[in-house]
Amino acid sequence: SQQGEEDPQALSIQEGENATMNCSYKTSINNLQWYRQNSGRGLVHLILIRSNEREKHSGRLRVTLDTSKKSSSLLITASRAADTASYFCATDGASGSRLTFGEGTQLTVNP
Amino acid sequence: DAGITQSPRHKVTETGTPVTLRCHQTENHRYMYWYRQDPGHGLRLIHYSYGVKDTDKGEVSDGYSVSRSKTEDFLLTLESATSSQTSVYFCAIGQQSSYNEQFFGPGTRLTVL
What we know:
The structure holds two protein chains of two kinds. Chain A is an all-beta fold. Helix content of chain A is 0%, strand content 54%. In chain A, strands 2, 4, 5, 9, 10 and 11 form a six-stranded mixed beta sheet that branches. In chain B, a hairpin with a 3-residue loop joins strand 4 and strand 5.
């Protein structure tokens, strides 16, 4: 079964709005990562947050991590049409070099 | 795509035939991974390698084998393809570090008729 589960499965917003995606996981982790996948392409790493961190920023991305609730959120501010993609969270857990991916959130940003 | 290529990019084959997918990297990363991506299942790990000739099973390894005879190449073989193996296959690489960021190839779309 998937370690990470994203919510919502699909999200449609207007350009300029903020987009928030959530990820829940089941077991203890060392770090949590977010990836983006454009249609027909491979995944691209966006940001990594360690288990001892609570918040991290990268450009228009803000990631939070709540290990007590085993959940993370990805916020994309001032969204653009180019942000349209699927977003996946991935956790490493106790497996070290292996990642477990969620099923993803499909984000559509309408111009 | 971070110095990772996959071949072929598209393949159509028939049930029962053997199929080999190739992943090639120019980054000299230690770890290499094969995933499959299916609607409703996200990405699932098939096999991975942590060095030349060092491989291990992932979540969905049945029906698949792998080989890594050189750092740069990781082969995925379907010994006898089945329709349930119709999927998009992604190779990924990673460095030996606690950050465990992975870099993905462009994918191979495999259709088994």
